[in-house]
Amino acid sequence: MSRRVVRQSKFRHVFGQPVKADQMYEDIRVSKVTWDSSFCAVNPKFVAIIVESGGGGAFIVLPLAKTGRVDKNHPLVTGHTAPVLDIDWCPHNDNVIASASEDTTVMVWQIPDYVPVRSITEPVVTLEGHSKRVGIISWHPTARNVLLSAGCDNLVILWNVGTGEMLLVLEDMHTDLIYNVGWNRNGSLLVTTCKDKKVRVIDPRKQQVVAEKAKPHDGARPIRAIFMADGKIFTTGFSKMSERQLGLWDLKNFEEPIALQEMDTSNGVLLPFYDPDSSIVYLCGKGDSSIRYFEITNEAPYVHYLNTYSSKEPQRGMGFMPKRGLDVSKCEIARFFKLHERKCEPIVMTVPRKSDLFQDDLYPDTPGPEPALEADEWLSGKDAEPILISLRDGYVPVKNRELKVVKKNILDNKPPPGPRRRSTCDPDLSRPALEEVLEEIRALKETVQAQEKRISDLENKLCQFTNGTD
């Protein structure tokens, strides 16, 4: 009687490989702020990295193709008055990024497709509502313009970026510092971890805790939690003996873990990155020099160790490319952007295949850039699964779509304070003149943007010319 010793899996031979030296991003002064966020955000167009900056907080945005040494005078995104702690690209617009800072604000930025000449200092919208530093931001996976922020004031706030308004404030739910927040697949629930050693599952629209688990890991160090595609929860933390652990939990029976594994005795917090299409979780510890990856299945022991990518240099942070930004012709199933002290190194995870044809089993339809809901629909109680796209012909990023912010006039809601004096100027007469001025300003802005693009193009041509004559 034959006995199967090795578990069958198409991801058993996944291997990681760093790119060549000329495809790295060199000379970037990565932030030294002590905060457990990834410091890097990536999408199919850009890589954004939180950097050191004097007098405030900043991050750098580079087009993916702009590899090699980064000019020390490269424009930054600078608007915060204190260090930036977290950044996150909008899943529905590849030119929009949000940033959270120690200055208690969240800012949303529009990044042009060309490299700007000067640093970007004006956000599209500034979201003010926290009283202490804001360390976590996360976009809603399916609803347009819904952004979550969590601060050291123990508040979780949901914003409508399209109007600049608060949608919901989740208060009195967390008694201490919030470590991380994650959405489920359709954005109907949140999972949070907190310094009070509890993992909470929250329905944000009902503003209630649906499930709660105290001490999923016994250690005192920070816990992380993320949702799996099927609704289970994956956690990383520490045991009493300070050994790093991972756990898998089912909400139907939150008391006992489905799986609990000990890993090693390193003290870096494990950041989990999850690919729902392949059901693989990648664990990257800050200060580690390795990436471990596990496959999550419905059969015991549920969490299956696959392999470890090891290197010599420790990582300061890590970016994770969405599935639509991968090279399907090379059977690439994940791409990481590992931050060193002075550079960013892409690492490609590949499934070895002999055929050059499109591999249907590796690339099921994956969430695309179109939102399934508007912010108001989601707030009213609707849920929708992500709108999926096929990667068969590869994904081509769409052109720059402008984020329009329509601010409601708060004065419209207030009654007049009393009998008003008759104004000497007739508002009907001044309105056409005002519109004319606004039109002139709009035209001037367009001219400035066109000139900046022209200068950028000329600089690029000049660089090519000088490189050719050397």
State the end-to-end distance: 71 Å
The major pleated sheet works out as: 6 strands, mixed
Mean pLDDT: 89
CA-based shape: globular
Strand content: 35-45%
Helix content: 10-25%
| Poorly predicted runs | 409-429
Number of DSSP strand runs = 32
Number of helices: 2
Gyration radius, rounded: 24 Å
Structural class of the secondary structure composition? Answer: mainly beta
Description:
This protein has about 475 residues and is mostly beta strands. The chain has helices at about 375-380, 425-470; strands at about 15-20, 25, 40, 45-50, 55-65, 70, 75-80, 85-90, 95-100, 105-110, 125-130, 135-140, 145-150, 155-160, 165-170, 180-185, 190-195, 200-205, 210-215, 225, 235-240, 245-250, 260, 270-275, 280-285, 290-295, 305-310, 315-320, 330-340, 345-350, 365, 390. Strands 1, 2, 6, 28, 29 and 30 form a six-stranded mixed sheet that branches. It has a four-stranded antiparallel sheet with strand order 3-4-5-7, with no helix packed on it. Strands 8-9-10-11 form a four-stranded antiparallel sheet, with no helix packed on it. Strand 18 and strand 19 (about 210-215) form a beta hairpin. The longest helix has about 45 residues, at about 425-470. The relative contact order is 0.13. Residues about 410-430 have low confidence and may be disordered.
List the helices and strands and how they pair.
Layout: E1 15-18, E2 25-26, E3 40-42, E4 46-51, E5 57-63, E6 68-69, E7 77-80, E8 84-89, E9 96-101, E10 105-110, E11 125-128, E12 134-139, E13 146-151, E14 156-160, E15 165-170, E16 178-183, E17 190-194, E18 198-203, E19 208-214, E20 224-227, E21 233-238, E22 244-249, E23 259-262, E24 270-275, E25 280-285, E26 290-296, E27 303-310, E28 317-320, E29 332-339, E30 343-350, E31 366-367, H1 375-379, E32 388-389, H2 427-469
Parallel strand pairs: 2-6
Antiparallel strand pairs: 1-30, 2-30, 3-4, 4-5, 5-7, 8-9, 9-10, 10-11, 12-13, 13-14, 14-15, 16-17, 17-18, 18-19, 20-21, 21-22, 22-23, 24-25, 25-26, 26-27, 28-29, 29-30, 31-32
